[in-house]
Amino acid sequence: MTTRIYTINRALVVPLALNALLLLAVFVLTFIRPATATERFLLAAALVPMAVIAVESLLRKVTVSDTGLVLAKFFKQRALAWADITHVGALAVRRKVYLVLTTTKGFYVLSNAYGRFGDLVRDVLSRMEAERIEEGAREILEAASENRMNIYAAWITAVLLVVVAAMKIAS
Prior knowledge:
Elements: E1 4-7, H1 10-32, H2 37-59, E2 61-64, E3 68-73, E4 76-81, E5 85-93, E6 96-103, E7 106-111, H3 117-126, H4 137-142, H5 149-170
Antiparallel strand pairs: 1-2, 2-3, 3-4, 5-6, 6-7
């Protein structure tokens, strides 16, 4: 029995976690250096969702085995047997590609933010009967490349937060 675990690409998780830490640092600096209540409020409003996104990205994983899939999220885990998956589809929006798994109880979406997304797609498609795979889905999913734009945006944000922290320290 082979089991493979797929997680969100570490190249994305690292800058997201760094951004949360940098936002926390700048937020703490507002109590050490002069700052307005509005500045503190806006930093707190940005810090909370950033921290949640960073933790969610770190904990999210998909485990593929001979019996089915286990989708793990923030405080949530869902097991899907291969027989429960009634339809496999794909959706491409610009550089984002989604693997859509439909079951009798709902649908589940996996994006190309997962590391080794191509391997994940091949693992899922190889275990499904051809009639359950949407026409054209295989081509969309096999042509999917890794989406690097989110990674670039997260690193640019980290650089900007370092600049903000430096400016706050210098003030």
